[in-house]
Specification:
about 140 residues, 6-stranded antiparallel sheet, single chain, alpha+beta, about 35% helix
């Protein structure tokens, strides 16, 4: 998907340090509601693209895209945290740059307030894995 690949490319080009990512993650988790920097990820071209995808399928509860370190690039709705790099959804789908499909276990998701399963796949620029995308599927809406 050209919109997603372009957004991930641009975020990767910022070359943030892990320290910077963890600082933003702590700030993110400590911020109630939706701050402007979070809103920017939802209102970006990529964020709006994800919202369109989410709206086209009734059982998608959330979609978010991560860079090559697991930091959020764009999202349909606010995620519980900014950095996904320490979680299986990123580790398994990015797979050290090799890419793979990861399907998590059904669990209650705080950010969407639904029971969902997260399906994560690599974002590829040609043959190169540059990030990952997670789609939260609301299991109560699957028919």
């Amino acid at each position: 998907d050209a919109v997603i690949v372009s957004a991930v490319r641009a975020e990767n080009a910022k070359a943030k340090s892990l320290e910077q990512i963890k600082e933003l993650d702590a700030k993110w988790k400590a911020t109630p509601g939706i701050a402007d920097y979070m809103k920017a990820m939802m209102q970006s071209e990529c964020g709006q693209h994800l919202q369109g995808i989410q709206g086209s399928v009734g059982y998608y509860a959330e979609l978010f895209v991560m860079d090559n370190q697991g930091g959020n690039v764009c999202m349909s709705d606010k995620t519980s945290d900014y950095w996904q790099g320490d979680e299986a959804k990123f580790k398994k789908s990015f797979n050290s740059g090799q890419g793979a499909v990861h399907i998590g276990k059904v669990k209650f998701d705080d950010s969407t307030q639904t029971y969902l399963v997260q399906v994560s796949v690599p974002v590829k620029d040609g043959d190169k894995v540059i990030g990952a995308i997670t789609i939260g599927v609301d299991i109560d809406k699957i028919k």
